[in-house]
Amino acid sequence: QNNPTTVTVHERGARHGFLASSDYAFRIDLTMGVRGLTTYIASNAERYLDPHELHDTALVIDGDNLCIQLFVRSEARMSPFGGNYDHFARAVVEFFELLRKCNVRPLVLLDGGYEKNKLKTVRSRMLGRIQFVARVKAGSNRLIIPLLMREVFVEALRVAKVPFMRCLFEADNEIAVLARKLDCPVLSYDSDFYIHNVKYIPYVTVNHKVYRKVIGDEENYEIELVDEENYEIELVDKRKSKRANRVLAKQGEGVVEESQISESYYYLDCSLYTIKNLIGTENRLTPEKLPLFATLLGNDYIERRVLFKFYLSMKVGKVSKKVPVPQRRIVAILRWLEHHSVKSATKAVLNQVRERHRGVLLRQLQGAMYGYNCEECASYEYFG
What we know:
384 residues, alpha/beta, Rossmann fold, 3 domains, five-stranded antiparallel beta sheet, five-stranded parallel beta sheet, 37% helix, 16% strand
């Protein structure tokens, strides 16, 4: 179950922009993060994701994840077996130029070494990738990650003059803590960030087109699409009163004329997730339970088979049979946790495991939950 899975995902959830950045189909390893949670959120995008304009802010970036996403995006210009590093490097630099255009200050964090208790999972994934590559044929549209992809990504960061830091171990916790300290969003595509108490922008919701919003007052504004190739601005939407004059703007050709306009800014269209979207306004699920929720779904530290008996004891309730089993399990665990504290829930889970395994499972549960609740942050001082 830890082997990479090749999946094709098409554009959906247009209102909230979920997956709307992909005018193409893309493939991704679904074993990252909390199992099944990304699919669950995507299937309920209207409920869990809010439209967002990304501009004038710091942005903490999951570097290893962005590296893969940008490689996938640039894949259309590559040969089936990859290796077109120049195309990939250009895609990285171009992405950070988009952020710079919108006055977004990127702070990139990269994974470091592997923790001992994750080595088994890492080894299994690497073995799966070797087996996957061995089966690929010339002309295949399957994605192969080239060996030097991450090295090229780091070099492109240097070229684009983007600040980055390599963590001692996995970067997820450091990313979440830094984002909370700076009160800014996280950019990634890892379901772990649906559990961390952060403002989270799933990368696939980011539209790689810069828009310019010109505001006359609180109710009247124009939205313009910036043509990056010709440096022109095209009016794509407007809500304005008769008093507001249209803005005449063309980059690179003299001064921009503005009349009766108080503010304008460039932004990237995307979707934003916050933890309140999952726990609900009625606080039916308190934030301190979310790490346990993620752990019970299964992650990189706890194998799902260990919790098999616990899953069998769950009563799903009224959920359509059309809903896939993993999503039904998510709904069931959410409902179950509403009636438990962290302590009582942990005790109930341990009671479903053989006595000789309880000590090991308890340490695994505590370790996994500690990762979600950790507040140590070396990068805060590093980035100044």
